[in-house]
Amino acid sequence: WGGALEAMDPEGAPPGSGLTEKQRQAVKDRFTAVNAAVDEASRSGQAEWRFPQPETARALRSATTQAVVAAYAAFYRRYKDSGFTRKHPEKYIKHSPEALGEIVSGLF
């Protein structure tokens, strides 16, 4: 999840509105990186991880879900209505924060 969290980091991110063409492309690249991380986690077999102690699995699921979804929710809110893509927002915005939370929780 490091790559996804890095892509969603607000430090050095374009503003949420009034984007230049270069900034719009940067936002597209960030959404693409997040989507790739979600796809990779889903394919990597992370869903098959098993833990000897159920409390370990719960703690890891909770911490991961909380970190990833909180970062994504802020990122999503900042850019979903920013006009970073004019034609096909669904190409970049593949998940709502709630849907991403379900995906991440389901991986453990």
TrEMBL record:
Domain of life: Eukaryota
Keyword Protein transport: yes
One GO location term (cellular component): exocyst
GO biological process, one term: protein transport
Keywords noted in UniProt: Exocytosis, Protein transport, Transport
SUPFAM superfamilies: Cullin repeat-like
A GO MF label: phosphatidylinositol-4,5-bisphosphate binding
The Exocyst complex subunit Exo70 C-terminal domain, residue ranges: 1-104
Region spans: Disordered: 1-23
Family (UniProt): Belongs to the EXO70 family.
Role of this protein: Component of the exocyst complex.
Protein name as it appears in the record: Exocyst subunit Exo70 family protein
